[in-house]
């Protein structure tokens, strides 16, 4: 097949332009990205070879090799992993599959200054494309395990790339970077320096469980003496990383920075996690877990098809990504690794869903995450505030399904409140502030903060100085009906049924007054009830308003207007 030229997809082109013009200040991370991809490719090959013994791939010495050529100014990263077919190269390298990318690029355009830009870039992993931060041409040669023909992909990152078939290609992938000339003068960015390469690998990729080898530096040829020098030193390649699985090492042996790099590898996030959680389960069913709470929500967290769950390993062997059986839906933002001792390497998703041990792990992990959040509330309130801002909406989904952990979830939840416009409150704090004689926790749901704050239902509560929770997430409509109480106090909507705010004394006074009014207005009320009979059940006098002349109230058991909208949107 002849060489074919393709155009990058629009988003890919935009990202590449950003890489070429180096708007990201730390260029070293390109090597982390390439090593991370190679490591994934080796994981995939080992697994495929395990499941398919007709694959015919050599898995005896799986590794990553880095070679620098300071004369030609090229850097090569090679692996003998799964490789890619021609179609996969075009699919995976020419387009950006991540559905959040378009949104990200829009936000990037609107970013006001360079700090904002850098912040956004930092949240977004650009993976393979980061090669173009340091290279003005990238050549990728790859052959998929089990296939005979290889593929060469080449691009300068400027709009197009070429693809051609290659008869002879080693299995796996090698990526050759032609380094930008402007970096050659600059020691900080000399990516052909063995010292520099070693330092980057140590910093970002030490935990990678495959050997990352560096070929010995080729001595520069000096007037014919170079050949001799090369013959004298047939040095062995050096393994740069310690290859120790972080979750299997004792806690005080591992630095936060190392944990963070593992997080970036498995999450494809470029920012540090908010929290690292370790769990060591011993006994009949032994496993280790290393979990992370990200510092920001991914763009597609609420999209269909969002891949949740942690990575599953069995005795250090990678088994699968996105193992949803280990993490409840409402903790879908949690990333990490679970390594179990006593599972079969052939375990499938279907088996996992039914396995009792897995269900126990699931429960234990969920509890551990919730208790970590609980601790965070007192130990690191600012971190907790970030967590709640980013993931509160997701966590509240757990109030609907996870009965066992409902109190724990309520305990770590925060809500906007009339008590303090700017600071959300926990239910415990609300209960502490409840007025003498106040029996219930009051809330109002609605579409926006403004809508609930200005609702006529709020008037009586404002007048009496009674705190009301302002619930404006769509999920709030649903969980408030599922959760009967907190700390023995019922949750009550201020928009439903009779609300009784008066003290006994006030009631006595009001009672006689009300009776008089009731008689006075009886005619009007029954006339109005008649006139409006198609739309309302009853018209009655109310003490809940102080300013507005009238408001619509639901029966305690009716669905709220906002919930009606949700049900309608769901087609019910
Ligand atoms: P990500 O790793 O987040 O998926 P990348 O841009 O880093 O994004 O890589 C895109 C895809 O290209 C990978 O998901 C993988 O399928 C493929 N790929 C990249 N490098 C390799 C490699 N060395 N071997 C096999 N496949 C690779
Ligand atoms: Mg990658």
Average residue pLDDT: 87
Strand order of the biggest β-sheet: 1-6-5-4-7-3-2-8-9
Total number of helices: 19
Structural class computed from helices and strand pairing: alpha+beta
Helix content range of the residues, please?
A: 25-40%
Please report the distance between the alpha carbons of the first and last residues: 55 Å
Query: Could you say which small molecules are bound to this protein?
Result: adenosine-5'-diphosphate, magnesium ion
- As a whole number of angstroms, the C-alpha radius of gyration is 31 Å
Strands, count: 19
Strand percent estimate: 15-25%
Quick one: overall form?
A: elongated
Biggest sheet overview = 9 strands, mixed
Low-confidence stretches: none
Regarding quaternary structure, what we see is single chain
Region (B): 350-565
InterPro entries: HATPase_C_sf, HATPase_dom, Heat_shock_protein_90_CS, HSP90_C, Hsp90_fam, Hsp90_N, Ribosomal_Su5_D2-typ_SF
Family: Belongs to the heat shock protein 90 family.
Protein name: Chaperone protein HtpG
Short description:
37% of the residues lie in helices and 17% in strands.
Key features of this structure:
alpha+beta; binds magnesium ion; single chain; binds adenosine-5'-diphosphate; nine-stranded mixed β-sheet; 19 helices; 572 residues; five-stranded mixed β-sheet
């Amino acid at each position: 097949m002849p060489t074919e030229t393709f155009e990058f997809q629009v988003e890919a082109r935009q990202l590449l332009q950003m890489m070429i013009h180096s708007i990201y200040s730390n260029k070293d991370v390109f090597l982390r990205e390439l090593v991370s991809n190679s490591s994934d490719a080796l994981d995939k090959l080992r697994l495929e070879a395990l499941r398919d013994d007709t694959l015919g791939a050599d898995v005896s010495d799986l590794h990553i090799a880095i070679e620098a050529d300071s004369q030609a100014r090229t850097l090569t990263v090679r692996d003998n992993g799964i490789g890619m077919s021609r179609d996969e190269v075009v699919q995976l390298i020419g387009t950006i599959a991540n559905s959040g990318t378009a949104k990200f690029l829009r936000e990037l355009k609107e970013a006001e200054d360079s700090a904002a830009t850098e912040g956004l870039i930092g949240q977004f992993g650009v993976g393979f494309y980061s090669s173009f931060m340091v290279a003005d041409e990238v050549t990728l040669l790859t052959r998929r395990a089990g296939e005979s023909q290889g593929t060469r992909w080449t691009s300068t990152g400027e709009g197009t790339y070429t693809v051609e078939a290659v008869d002879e290609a080693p299995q796996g992938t090698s990526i050759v970077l032609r380094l930008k000339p402007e970096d050659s003068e600059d020691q900080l960015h000399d990516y052909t320096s063995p010292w520099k390469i070693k330092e980057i690998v140590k910093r970002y990729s030490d935990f990678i469980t495959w050997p990352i080898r560096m070929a010995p530096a080729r001595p520069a040829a000096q007037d014919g003496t170079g050949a001799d020098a090369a013959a004298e030193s047939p040095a062995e390649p050096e393994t740069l990383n310690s290859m120790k699985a972080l979750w299997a090492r004792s806690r005080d042996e591992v630095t936060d920075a190392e944990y963070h790099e593992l997080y970036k590898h498995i999450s494809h996030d470029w920012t540090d996690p908010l929290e690292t959680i370790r769990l060591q389960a011993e006994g009949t069913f032994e496993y280790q877990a290393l979990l992370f709470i990200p510092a920001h929500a991914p763009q597609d967290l609420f999209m269909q098809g969002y891949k949740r769950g942690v990575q599953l390993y069995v005795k250090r062997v990678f088994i699968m990504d996105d193992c949803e059986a280990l993490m409840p839906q409402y903790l879908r933002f949690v990333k990490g690794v679970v390594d179990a001792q006593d599972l079969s390497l052939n375990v499938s998703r279907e088996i996992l869903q039914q396995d009792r041990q897995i269900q126990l792990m699931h429960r234990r992990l969920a509890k551990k995450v919730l208790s970590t959040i609980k601790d965070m509330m007192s130990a690191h309130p600012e971190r907790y505030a970030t967590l709640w801002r980013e993931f509160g909406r997701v966590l509240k989904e757990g109030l609907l399904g996870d009965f066992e952990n409902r109190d724990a979830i309520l305990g770590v939840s925060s809500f906007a409140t009339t008590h303090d416009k700017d600071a959300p409150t926990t239910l415990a704090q609300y209960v502490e502030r409840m007025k003498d004689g106040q029996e219930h926790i009051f809330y109002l749901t609605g579409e926006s903060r403004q809508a609930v704050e200005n609702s006529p239902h709020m008037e009586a509560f404002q007048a009496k100085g009674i705190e009301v929770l302002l619930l404006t997430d769509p999920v709030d409509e649903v969980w408030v009906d599922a959760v009967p109480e907190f700390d023995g106090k019922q949750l009550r909507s201020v928009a439903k049924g009779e609300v009784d705010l008066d003290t006994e004394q006030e009631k006595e006074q009001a009672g006689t007054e009300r009776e008089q009014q009731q008689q006075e207005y009886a005619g009007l009320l029954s006339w109005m009830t008649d006139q409006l009979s198609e739309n309302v059940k009853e018209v009655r006098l109310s003490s809940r308003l102080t300013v507005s002349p009238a408001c619509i109230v639901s029966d305690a058991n009716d669905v709220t207007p906002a919930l009606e909208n949700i049900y309608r949107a769901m087609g019910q």
